Amino acid sequence: MSYPPYQPQPPGYGPPPPAYGQPQPMYPQPMAPPSPALAPAMRVDAVQGTPFGVAYPSVAATPSGPSIGSLIAGIASILVALFAMCLGFTGASEGWGLAAAGAFTVLGVFLGAGAAGLGLAATRQIRRAAGTGVKVSGRGMAITGMILGGVGGGLAVLVILLTFIVS
């Protein structure tokens, strides 16, 4: 059996198929994103007598634990004061409102005082760590916690006074 001789395709059919071993992509491949540049070392000290050095890398700031605690205690003091308000005004007609509001007022005042104390401790910790090379963050959280603690404690005292007047 004989095959007909090879005849080239007429023009208009496109390029010839690729040779084996050279796969062609169906669509152009996107370029890979560049790798992130490493942050330069904060300080490099040469070790005398050797070609080596000691690198002190820059590190990210660590959030202060007391500042986080201050913020949480400040938010909790406001929530407890609002809960005391709900108990005091709804229970004023039954007679138990003043007792319930008083108990939660004490808790709200203690939480507010704790938030203020933790906020002060956190700001001192952050200020002392500034000169040592250790990066500690959270000053905004500490200040916010102190403010929320003061508002929560004041609101709790206001709630007990208003509950006393209503009942």
What strand order characterises the main sheet? 1-2
Task: Please trace the helix and strand order, writing H or E for each element.
Answer: EEEHHEH
Low-confidence stretches: none
**Which structural class best describes the helix and strand composition?**
mainly alpha
Q: How far is the N terminus from the C terminus?
A: 114 Å
Total helical elements: 3
Radius of gyration: 35 Å
Question: Oligomerization state of this entry?
Answer: single chain
* Helix content class: 40-55%
Find the count of extended strands (DSSP E, 2+ residues): 4
Q: Main sheet?
A: 2 strands, antiparallel
Report the sheet-strand fraction: 5-15%
Which descriptor suits the 3D outline? elongated
Average pLDDT: 83
What does it look like?
It is a single chain. The protein is mainly alpha-helical and about 170 residues long. The chain has a domain at about 100-165. The protein is about 50% helix and about 5% strand. It has helices at about 65-90, 95-130, 140-165, and strands at about 45, 55, 60-65, 135. The protein has a two-stranded antiparallel ribbon. Strands 3-4 form a two-stranded parallel ribbon. A hairpin with a 6-residue loop joins β1 and β2 (about 55). The longest helix is centred in the last third of the chain and has 33 residues, at about 95-130. The relative contact order is 0.17.
Q: Any chance you could write out the topology, listing elements then pairs?
A:
Elements: E1 43-46, E2 53-56, E3 62-63, H1 65-90, H2 97-129, E4 136-137, H3 139-166
Parallel strand pairs: 3-4
Antiparallel strand pairs: 1-2
Helix pairs in contact: 1-2, 1-3, 2-3
